[in-house]
From TrEMBL:
This is 3-hydroxyisobutyryl-CoA hydrolase. It comes from Kribbella ginsengisoli. Pfam families: ECH_2. Gene3D superfamilies: 2-enoyl-CoA Hydratase, Chain A, domain 1 (3.90.226.10). It comes from the Bacteria. InterPro entries: ClpP/crotonase-like_dom_sf, ECH_dom, HIBYL-CoA-H. It catalyses: 3-hydroxy-2-methylpropanoyl-CoA + H2O = 3-hydroxy-2-methylpropanoate + CoA + H(+). Its EC number is 3.1.2.4. Keywords: Hydrolase. Residues 15-334 form the Enoyl-CoA hydratase/isomerase domain.
Length: 350
């Protein structure tokens, strides 16, 4: 008999959620989302649970994101399973962000896409020397969802824009610097931290194990990043990168040019609009609109095919150039859904 995809348990005053698909780096499914949501709702009113702890099974990471193969297959078939998954996933992300008790996310190893949604909205976010955290979506013809536009639009300067458009990833020091994590704990101290959380509050447990985070390399590049990524025009951003006197900027231009032009343009607008929104729930509502428009789109299906299915790493984007993505096409991704809106912001206000 196979093990549950999420392990739910309690140790002292700590409720434990363990993502349990190690063979898939704990890639997130709708079933997993529902199990986590149910546990959080139960623990929120259970006085015996004072802290929630999220970890991933296996040695590779907390979570490699949503189960992209299932989403791809659903998109090919024109199904609705992905839409239902995103609705549940985004609602869970809002639940975590607003959770009434300390939520400790152990962001050890790989944390990508949907894994960011589960962890970077937590009240206590722990990274280690093994952490690799990122939103790789523009490389598969998608965009940084699960509240990614909200988080990255609030990073210092244009660091979040840089990571979002280039599908970049960061290690522990940079994750803390850009606002995706809070505390650095060497991985060999994690067992002690988790054991302590059974009997003491997170602040006391962390005090015994935290260490100084590694240097944040992105901060050293902030001058050219801020200069290159200002404004709302991706074509101008690419031109600035290409014409920069800084070698790293010119190399970044090649990376940016390899991503889905449609995804890059939609992502930039989504970041700029998210920066002006007043709540994560509003950002998740906007991301839901975008997700539904990307589902079944050429670039999303082609990007997943090239990166995950066939693994030829040679996606054929349509259109193939940033210049050829019409503003009307970008605007169409943001159009309202009418009766199909997710409506998280309305739920919050009621």
């Amino acid at each position: 008999m196979s093990e549950p995809v999420v392990l739910i348990s309690q140790d002292g005053q700590a409720g434990h959620i363990v993502l349990n698909r190690p063979q898939a780096i704990n890639a997130l499914t709708h079933e997993m989302v529902d199990l986590i949501q149910a546990a959080l709702e139960s623990w929120a009113v259970d006085p015996s649970v004072q802290t929630v702890v999220l970890t991933g099974s296996g040695e590779r990471g907390l979570c490699a994101g949503g189960d992209i193969v299932s989403i791809y297959q659903d998109g090919l078939a024109g199904g609705t399973a992905s839409v239902e998954f995103w609705a549940a996933e985004y609602r869970l992300d809002a639940t975590i962000a607003e959770y009434p008790k300390p939520f400790v996310a152990i962001m050890d190893g790989i944390v990508l896409g949907g894994g960011i949604g589960l962890s970077a909205h937590a009240s206590v976010r722990v990274v280690t020397e093994r952490s690799k955290i990122g939103m790789p979506e523009t490389g598969i013809g998608f965009f940084p969802d699960v509240g990614g536009t909200w988080l990255l639009s609030r990073a210092p300067g244009e660091l979040g824009t840089h990571l979002a458009l280039t599908a970049g990833s960061v290690r522990a020091g940079d994750a803390i610097a850009v606002g995706l994590a809070d505390w650095y704990v060497p991985s060999d101290r994690l067992p002690g931290l988790i054991a302590s959380l059974a009997c003491v509050a997170p602040a006391e447990a962390l005090a015994a194990v935290v260490a100084e985070a590694p240097a944040a390399g992105l901060l050293a590049d902030r001058e050219w990043i801020d200069a290159a990524y200002e404004g709302d025009d991706v074509v101008k951003i690419l031109a600035r990168l290409m014409g920069s006197e800084v070698g790293a900027a010119r190399s970044t231009a090649d990376v940016l040019a390899s991503k889905s032009p449609t995804s890059v343009r939609v992502t930039l607008r989504a970041l700029r609009e998210a920066a002006d929104l007043s709540s994560l729930r509003e950002a998740l509502d906007q991301e839901y609109r975008l997700s539904l428009r990307f589902q079944g789109s050429h670039d999303f299906l082609e990007g997943v095919r090239a990166q995950v299915i066939d693994k030829d790493r040679n996606p054929q984007w349509m259109p193939a150039r940033l210049d050829d993505v019409a503003e009307s096409v970008v605007a169409s991704y943001f159009a309202g859904l009418g009766a199909d809106e997710l409506g998280l912001s309305q739920e919050s206000a009621s």
